[in-house]
Specification:
This protein is an alpha+beta fold. It has three helices and eleven strands. A hairpin with a 2-residue loop joins β3 and β4. The protein is globular, with a radius of gyration of 23 Å. The protein starts with a helix and ends with a strand.
Length: 179
């Protein structure tokens, strides 16, 4: 009889532990990043946002980029299609906030990707589409030091329909870092 009671207590404790961990993880996924914080200063379940939102009208226009899919023999070919909203940005100078995503190792970068999400956050998480990224090519070989903090870039929009001319379909040329 004692054996059955002890076995039931252990089962109940394990179920309670699994439920507690499950609900805690679900809460962190829904509301942000749950961080352990010194309870003397804050509630231990205080949620800190996982990134600063970057979306604005320019990012929204960039996000309209689509692809035409055709076949050449056995090969599938993806050709960028730039809707009017995005075409209107070509050759205009824009300022765009975002997170630096390096294309190569090192501290300083003269060419890199700019994203609406930080590099440490999964680029494919969330709802709807894959968040947009654009290629940044700095003016006169100037460089930007890698940071996990948001940066602001100013430069001329180029719509690259030939991917052999760079890494991305949307590029910012002659870019400068805005402080």
């Amino acid at each position: 009889m004692k054996y059955k009671t002890l076995k039931n207590i252990i089962k109940t404790a394990l179920v309670a532990l699994v439920l507690t961990v499950g609900f805690s993880s679900a809460r962190a996924q829904v509301t942000g990043v749950q961080t352990p914080i010194d309870p003397a200063f804050m509630d231990p379940f205080t949620v800190i946002p996982d990134h600063t939102p970057m979306m604005n009208d320019i990012w929204e226009a960039i996000n309209t980029l689509m692809y035409r899919v055709t076949k050449k023999g056995n090969e599938t070919v993806y050709t960028p299609h730039f809707p009017d909203e995005l075409k209107r940005l070509e050759n205009t100078v824009v300022e765009l906030p975002g997170y630096l995503v390096p294309l190569h190792g090192g501290r300083n970068h003269d060419t890199f990707m700019l994203s609406v999400l930080p590099i440490m956050q999964c680029m494919f998480c969330g709802t709807n589409d894959i968040p947009p990224m654009i290629e940044i090519i700095m003016k006169n070989g100037k460089t930007v030091r890698f940071t996990e903090d948001p940066i602001r870039i100013k430069g001329r929009v180029f719509l690259n329909s030939d991917i052999s001319k760079g890494n991305a379909e949307v590029q910012i040329l002659d870019a400068e870092l805005i402080n």
